[in-house]
Specification:
The chain is of the alpha+beta class and about 160 residues long. It has a single domain, classed as Alpha-Beta Plaits (2-Layer Sandwich). The protein is built from four helices and eight strands; from the N terminus they run H-H-E-E-E-E-H-E-E-E-H-E. It starts with a helix and ends in a 7-residue tail after the last strand. InterPro entries: CRISPR-assoc_prot_Cse3 (IPR010179). This is CRISPR-associated protein.
């Protein structure tokens, strides 16, 4: 059975995909974009009663950031390594809104998975085109397998370069 049928959509609907390459090729340092990102802002706690041991010797438990300030700082801290910076608004504050914040619990195999998710919407400027392209193609943060990390962009109408 085709995936579309498995997902519950009728088979007579025609789906269309777009080539992503033209957009990726247009990405350049200095461009400004509106963006939206659903992410799992989290950190690895070094000391926690529910320790998780990894094969590389690191002990810790992944914990979601729960306050708006923590979640916003999580995004700002990762922006440079993903080739962008968050622009500031007229009040010299980061031009980003944190919304649709949820804590989700569900079973997976023999464990309960807890995800703290947030949707970020705002404006950014590309600082490294190659890193930004990678972020667009590979996502940002953890929980990509659970629908997090997808960075979407739209032209900034105030910036005529896009």
């Amino acid at each position: 059975m085709h995936i579309v049928e498995q997902a519950g959509w009728p088979t007579h609907v025609e789906w269309e995909t777009k080539n992503y390459e033209p957009l990726l090729e247009r990405i350049a340092k200095g461009q400004q974009w509106h963006f939206k990102l659903r992410a799992n802002p989290a950190r690895k706690a070094k000391e926690d009663k529910g320790r998780r041991h990894r094969s590389d010797g690191i002990v810790g438990k992944v914990q979601g950031h729960i306050t708006v300030d923590q979640q916003l700082q999580w995004l700002i801290d990762r922006s440079a390594s993903h080739g962008f910076t968050i622009l500031n608004d007229q009040n010299d504050q980061p031009d980003v809104v944190v919304k649709e914040r949820h804590k989700e619990n569900f079973k997976r195999a023999d464990a309960t998975v807890t995800l703290v998710t947030a949707v970020f919407e705002g404006r950014l400027e590309v600082t490294d085109a190659e890193l930004f392209r990678k972020a667009l193609c590979q996502g940002i943060g953890r929980a990509k397998g659970f629908g997090c990390g997808l960075l979407t962009i739209a032209p900034d109408l105030n910036n005529k370069d896009e």
